[in-house]
Amino acid sequence: MKYARTLQLDGIEIPEAPIPPEYEKILTPDALLKLRDTVREFRPLLNELRRNRARKRHLRRNGLLPLGFNPETRELRADLSWQALSCPPALTGDLTGARLEFTGPAHSRGGMVNRFASGADFAFECLEDALSPWWDNLMQAQVNLYDVARGQLTHPKKKDVVVGVGGKFAQLEVRPRGLHLDDPRVLVDGIPVPGFLLDFVLHFHHNAKLLYEHGLGPFFYFAKLEGAEDAGWCNSVIEFSQERHNIPCGTTRASILIETLPALFEAAEIVYELKSHIGALNDGRWDKYASDIREQPRNIFPGRSQLTMQTERARAYTLYTSWVCYTRGVPKVGGMEAGIPLSKSDEFNDAELQKFNDEALRKAIANKKIEADPEGLACIGAWVAHPFWVQHLRPLFVHEDKNWKQHARQRFLDVNLQGKEEELTKAMTAVPEGTISVEDLWEGVTAQIEYKESWISGAGAKGIEYRDFANNKLIKILMDDLATDAITDAQHWTWQRLGARIQDSAENAARIEQVLGIHLGDEKSITPELLARLYQEKLKRIRARLGDESYAKSSFGLAAQRSLELATMGDNRFEQYEYVPEYLMPDLLEAERKTWK
């Protein structure tokens, strides 16, 4: 086994994962013992949080606990006198100005160099949805973070290109894995460590003091929180880590992705729990819609193309998170611009640009004229996944009015959402109207198979080509991560479970019957058989694209099999596997172990 050895200290061990020489600066005895101590301190409460999450989900999804705001914290939400604490003067890194965040998987050394040198305000280095958690990916990510914090991150192909944090380069934000996943390759007291703590502690141990001394954080993004209890746990981890590294309280800042429905209803409470360390709130999209479907599994949501940020549900969601931000003194960051140019010249055509500009303008419009749009969200910035967006979108978030934040706060105070929680709950749980077309199904099949194969094989962010079903014509290319797989998996399960119908033209229905050799019937219901045929058709086209030899070496067949299994599970599907990686992790571990031999 390449570089294989057992690394074992008092109470912590890495029993089989390879540790080449470049990882040794990360897996130092001091770092591992700090990880051990942190896990011992916080794993018992995390396990309790996980049990509470599962209990609440079961109650909500069986109608025993209503979806909505927590009545026990009504007074906290009603009290507008409390604010998040401002960043201390020692933090010179700007979390409140115009903020374009260029995101990508942290293990890609070349990609990280490009993000830091792109002109973006922040390089958002992901160890979560955009990174497949192969051992080598996780360790290489830590090596890259170690190097960039010291100003010595070199491009793998251009050794003269060296980047660091801040100054002429971007600032650093790190997104560790969510609270729901363990990492079986590192054991504390014989039990797998929480993935969040492995990612957080190694980065914090090696880099936090250095970043603090330069006024640059450390800055984090936390994902998949489900409420105030989760936020309180995260805050305790931050305080514990700051104390052990002699870093002042409030120096570490964590931006929170509001990407689950339970977290939305507790957005104010999350800010309160993290008020000494909150960096920003960020609106998700696909993960949020996936959570919506899981929380309301008896409802049929339309095709993904109709799940925009303009639905009643999404507008209420983004309005409420903006209101929380501006009444509590917290920056608001808009969600992802995931488009990749169709042309090889890295330019978008006019139609593509217009689509993305409309969404970006809605996020930013309150920065230009507060009164221009009553639903302008006053975001200070957005995420991007392609360098084109850095220069194209950043001017939208530059503030002409130096007092715009005070104006925005007053505007949101004037909106006065106090006393409107019943109305908000209705809007935030409204099932979007729409249809399910042949192309909606086909797009979901494409995303599931292409992405799962990539994730199992070690790539967590993939540029996926979406082609139409009828003619195999290229429609768009999107940089997709695990969130895309989450939404399509949730849709396919509910559609076949609830007997959703395809609502499409007779011509398109006839085409799918002809290609698949199946009769849809008068109801045109989405059945397990229809999904199975669609997966097989996708595999047929992938084989034709790759050739037999390359296809045989791939995991596309396994990806299709797992997609069908998840789509046709029984009624407790989401209680068994809330998140897709919980189901796919054994396949990933088997795939990576083959590379260790």
CATH class of the largest domain: Alpha Beta
Query: Which structural category do the helix and sheet elements fall into?
Result: alpha/beta
Kindly provide the radius of gyration, computed on alpha-carbon positions and rounded to a whole number of angstroms.
Answer: 23 Å
- CATH fold title of the largest domain: TIM Barrel
**Largest beta sheet: strand ordering:** 3-4-7-10-11-12-13-15
Task: Characterise the protein shown here.
With 597 residues, the chain is α/β, with parallel strands linked by helices. The chain has 22 helices and 17 strands. The chain has an eight-stranded parallel beta barrel, surrounded by four helices. The chain is globular. About 2% of the residues have low confidence.
Architecture blueprint of SSEs:
Layout: E1 7-9, E2 12-14, H1 29-61, H2 74-78, E3 99-105, H3 109-116, E4 122-126, H4 135-149, E5 153-154, E6 162-163, E7 171-175, E8 182-188, E9 191-194, H5 195-213, E10 219-222, H6 228-244, E11 253-258, H7 261-265, H8 267-273, E12 278-283, H9 286-295, H10 312-328, E13 332-337, E14 339-340, H11 350-368, E15 381-384, H12 387-393, H13 404-415, H14 421-428, H15 438-456, E16 462-467, E17 474-480, H16 482-498, H17 506-516, H18 528-546, H19 548-553, H20 556-567, H21 573-576, H22 580-596
Parallel strand pairs: 3-4, 3-15, 4-7, 7-10, 10-11, 11-12, 12-13, 13-15
Antiparallel strand pairs: 1-2, 2-8, 5-6, 8-9, 14-17, 16-17
Helix pairs in contact: 1-5, 1-6, 4-5, 6-8, 9-16, 10-13, 15-16, 15-18, 15-20, 18-20
